[in-house]
Write a structure and sequence with these properties.
single chain, three-stranded parallel beta sheet, 10 helices, 11 strands, globular, binds NADPH dihydro-nicotinamide-adenine-dinucleotide phosphate
Length: about 290
Amino acid sequence: MTRILKGKPVIDSLNTHLKSESEGLRSRGLVPVLAIVRVGENADDVTYERSAEKCCAAAGVEVKKYLFAADVREEEILSAVRAISVDKNIHGALILRPLPPHIDDRALCRALAPEKDVDGITEYSMAGVYSDKRVGFSPCTAEACIDMLKHYNIEIAGRRAVVVGRSFVVGKPAAMMLLRENATVTICHTKTKELAALCREAEILVVATGHAKLITEGFFSPRQTIIDVGINVDEEGKLCGDVDREKAEGIVSAIAPVPGGIGRVTTAVLAKHVIEACKRSALKET
Ligand code: NDP
């Protein structure tokens, strides 16, 4: 029987720990605060923002929002990010991306103080993911994949992992983090040949392509644990992942489904990072 790896128990367990950490900080007069920067009214951004607010509230993290019209001038948003970077009462910032094309994404990332980059978008955080330096914070979704595997006691070390997708937001950092946990990792993308055969060999399969039900019959095998990261809408208008769950169930060992899997674990990881950033800033000041 296929085990369903639900996100909620992972979130509940994270939140219990985070709540006690944030209470500890509050008792010392420290309130962890996340700044959310959103440009425009993109529905996905608004949904993600709501999820982040909910998770932060559960973890005892305050949220301060910086909302801009879609046609905001680049200089205006840059100066807001610079102000966040020097504000001692803000510990982390989430910049909802992609940004409108008239805003230079890299310039905005550079304007963010690395220690407040709780979603792994600055070069400093990337250096932490792609080297052994352990600095900054990893992208939240990639870390959520690892947290979920660990929560369900799924062994990573020594196992064959395949990551489908190589974006800097999910695929590449997830692959690097699996490697750090001593998995043997293969990264697949649109030019990969014999994708189904490679996926079948995976004991851990992380899929982040943005293509509904791309991973289907012929891709599955009994020893697999699948983490489906994709968020798509199917032909009936229902939310679905990159993995054809109906076809996977009954064959694979375990699957984190969409919806109800990795999605909100991502925002719980975000709250975790803000609390850690708050602790680090307090340490720096003592
Ligand atoms: P990108 O579009 O940036 O990257 C998609 C990756 O998938 C690319 O590397 C691409 O390869 C690869 N890919 C696309 N089609 C195929 C294919 N047919 N075969 C093999 N590889 C393929 O997407 P993101 O990484 O940003 O997001 C991926 C998915 O994850 C989306 O559905 C997104 O909504 C979801 N997501 C979910 C989050 C959550 O919290 N749960 C957070 C972030 C994203 P190539 O490089 O060759 O183009």
